Amino acid sequence: MSGAFATTQGNCSSFKFDTPHSCEKSPVIADLTPDALPENRTADCCHGGILAAWAIDPSMSFSSFEMMVGHLGANPNVQAPLNLTLMAPGPGYTCGLVADTDPTISSDIGGRRQLQAYRTWKSTCTYSSFVANQAPVCCVSLSTFYNSKITSCPTCSCGCREAEESTGSCIREGYPAPQSDSLDSDDIVLCTDHMCPVTVHWHVMKNYVTHWKVKLTVSNYNYRRNYSNWNVLAQHPGFSQNATAFSFNSTMLPSFGFSDEVALFWGIDYYNNDLLNADKDQLGAVSTQILLKKDSNSFTLKNGWALPRRIYFNGENCQMPLPDTFPMLPNGSSNLKPAHTLLLFLIYLTFKTVVTRL
């Protein structure tokens, strides 16, 4: 093999010479780390098992490895794999049948010659939060500038608190180890009514004449886990207009199958791409302000329109509060009068802050 390795060699006692890399009939194949030796590498290999989202880093969104299969006996016909399971790094992916497809074409001699594979098969694997986790792993809380009420995460969003009120830390049961920097499988979190390792808070900050502003905060309640290269996906019709995130990277995604626009946010390298674990004094947290242009035909503060429709953290569907608990406009109020005089001043301060940080 090159570009990856089989986790067990199996029983290769029948081979006297040229002992195979693995004699398992159903080997578990793992990716090599980026520091793999040149003789063990292939093109596009060795990401340490981490694949980035295509929208975040296309060059890191795919991986490959090569293996030579021998000992085929008298019938050397090439057969498709009988079964394929994708572990990334735990359960959650369900792979379809391995089906024939057009042979893969690769280039040689600097792209001047094309090489065609003998046969190519393809299987599509689909992720499901319900398969991956016995309980949700994140929840959403909401607040606005026009209502002092804070809508907290729903009680028991990610499991119910069994410890006494005075207990500071709780162990979440039935939660497989997620992709994180921790090697410990225990998930010890701050004891809360929602019992989620991660919360996403959406705060409607300001209503200007042509724009409106939101603060998005992601908090880590986990005492032992950091979340590196995290991402948050937010679904809201307001993202159909120009939006600027000041402290996160962001991009708009194609909204196939969604009635509302979808924005993807992730951290800035060497600044906030690591969501650190909580400690006894404070939560781990990252945040940004988002300035969105108004669509005069749809924008309103009524009926919770400015609040998100759905939030995902690292691909996991976060538990949303029920609509009847959303912070609403005060009785008798229509859309609050937009702020006029502070707009240019606030944008100037934000610009100066960014320039100073760079």
From TrEMBL:
Cellular component GO terms, alphabetical: plasma membrane; side of membrane
Subcellular location per the Swiss-Prot or TrEMBL entry? Cell membrane
Membrane topology classification: Lipid-anchor; GPI-anchor
**Residue ranges annotated for the COBRA C-terminal domain, each copy included:** 138-327
Concerning Pfam families, the annotation shows:
COB_C, COBRA
Gene Ontology biological-process annotations: cellulose microfibril organization; plant-type cell wall cellulose biosynthetic process
Alphabetized UniProt keyword annotations: Glycoprotein, GPI-anchor, Lipoprotein, Membrane, Signal
Coiled coil stretches, renumbered = none
**Stated family:** Belongs to the COBRA family.
Q: Supply the name of the protein.
A: COBRA-like protein 1 isoform X2
The gene coding this protein: LOC110417879
